[in-house]
Specification:
The protein has about 240 residues and is mostly beta strands. The chain folds into two domains: about 30-115, Thrombin, subunit H; about 135-225, Thrombin, subunit H (Beta Barrel), CATH 2.40.10.10. It is built from four helices and 15 strands. The chain has helices spanning about 30-35, 160-165, 170-180, 225-235, and strands at about 1-5, 10-15, 35-40, 45-55, 55-60, 75, 85-95, 110-115, 130, 140-145, 150-160, 180-185, 200-205, 205-215, 215-220. The two termini are about 15 Å apart. Pfam families: Trypsin. Keywords: Signal.
Length: about 240
């Protein structure tokens, strides 16, 4: 693991360990820009997005993993069309944040999934850089399959001030933004967010700042950095 610190932003770079890749494809602009994104399926049905954080680990929102058993999930990586030319890796187990309880509210909506095999690092398949600074606002892009087979890019803004909170409809979502667990997300286009965007990475300056959760809120990443690191270290 390598720690890079710039003037204003520090990032954790978790390298991938070499392993097998099932297929290869010609480079596509979006998968080249977002080589860490994965499409997550359950019994071959698309359920959400995620990112590779280490050779055998992916990160997403806990709400993506609502079904059982964990072993029925798969991650499709390395392709702008997850149904074609993707590296498919089965999930061994899902570890949700210990304070995630959807019956009590949408807070702590984050989970790690341990893969069966180690992903092979290529130009189209790499680990994401986790942003360390918990910034209050950011101009960002969201990479998402959006419930389709094709990767898309959506421009948006993250915020956590009272103005953005006032625009949210759900009181529970307002509360987790006020508590610093999530951001409000405002779209810069006419894209319609939906269940197919769950777990989508929200990026700024090539660093992961949030994962789309639901209802125009996104789980903040920096505050969960220690949990991400310790969970992977304690579960080799």
């Amino acid at each position: 693991m390598k720690l890079d610190c710039g003037l204003t932003i520090c990032t954790i770079c978790v390298g991938l360990v070499a392993a097998k890749q099932t297929k290869r494809q010609a480079a596509d602009p979006l998968i080249t820009k977002y080589p860490f994104i994965v499409a997550i399926t359950h019994n071959s049905n698309f359920v959400g997005n995620g990112v590779i954080v280490a050779g055998k680990w992916i990160l997403s929102t806990a709400s993506v993993f609502a079904n059982t058993p964990d072993t029925d999930y798969q991650a499709h990586a390395g392709s702008s069309n997850y149904l074609q030319d993707a590296t498919v890796n089965g999930i061994q187990r899902v570890l949700k944040h210990p304070q995630y309880n959807p019956q009590q509210g949408p807070g702590n909506n984050i989970a790690l999934a341990q893969m069966n095999d180690i992903f092979l690092e290529t130009q189209l398949l790499q680990s994401v850089d986790l942003g360390i600074n918990d910034v209050p606002t950011a101009s960002t892009t969201m990479a998402t399959f959006g419930g389709t087979a094709q990767l898309q890019e959506v421009f948006n803004e993250l915020a956590s001030d009272e103005a953005c909170i006032g625009q949210l409809n759900d009181e529970a979502n307002k509360r987790i933004v006020q508590e610093g667990l999530a951001y409000c997300m405002t779209l810069s286009s006419d894209y319609s967010v939906g269940p197919g965007d769950l777990g989508a990475p929200i990026m700024s300056m090539d660093f992961l700042y949030a994962l789309y959760a639901d209802g125009f809120v996104a789980t903040r990443i920096a505050i969960y950095r220690s949990w991400i690191q310790s969970t992977m270290q304690e579960n080799p």
